[in-house]
Fold this sequence. Notes:
This protein has 236 residues and is an all-beta fold. The chain has a domain at 27-127. It contains one helix and eleven strands. It has one helix at 72-75; strands spanning 28-34, 42-47, 55-57, 64-66, 82-87, 94-98, 102-107, 115-121, 133-138, 143-150, 157-164. The strands form three sheets. It has a four-stranded antiparallel sheet, with no helix packed on it. Strands 5-6-7-8 form a four-stranded antiparallel sheet, with no helix packed on it. The radius of gyration is 51 Å and the shape is elongated. The termini are far apart. InterPro entries: DUF7099 (IPR055525).
Amino acid sequence: MEFPFVVFHELPACRYYVPLHESEDNGVSATLFRSSRRGDELVCITTWTQSGVPILAHPKEGNKTDVKTENASRHGRLGNRIQCASFSPSGAELAMVNDRGYLYQISNLDSSPMDVKRLATSKELTTKSDSFAMSYMTTTDEDTIIMAWVDAATGVANIKRVPVAAQGDITMSAPLMPQQPPSPKYELPESSRDPPRVHELPREAEPAPVKRNSKPAVELPTDPPRFLSRFRGITR
């Protein structure tokens, strides 16, 4: 009793004894638990037997209520041989498929009588199928019931989609995908919106052209000095 259970305990108030009378009786076909924070938990038990009426049991009080159709001429008889059952995501509705292939939706689960309506018919589900599965599915457009099973004789897989009108609040069981936060936007003040001014660097002054002095650096006197006067008139 270790796998797949982690923590478990028995609900004595929900014990349901079902005798087997015929060879076609196949015992319990579904056991569902509807959790609730308000304290109105429910346990649904269905069987594929002749005498096992589908019931809703309260785990604490132990009260049991039979699930059956009051007006059999309009919606047909739900019966005791149930293929499978499934709670809606809100827990306000319950779906069942019987041995005639009739799909029923049961609402007003806390009242008596309950509201039992037939939604669809599948002629392939007239015998007990071990591969049958059923679940509510919530989409953006509508809420549907998905049924899937495999025909043991032919090996053909069947999938049936039945739209339903949802009642109550639909809670998503799958976690939502995380969304990326919007990127922050920074707005500059008006004073800083003007384009930056371009400051021109001062130009370096070009060096002035050097003026060439045509005069000799040393000016010779026009009159020769006296010590050269004695050499006048001497030629080589």
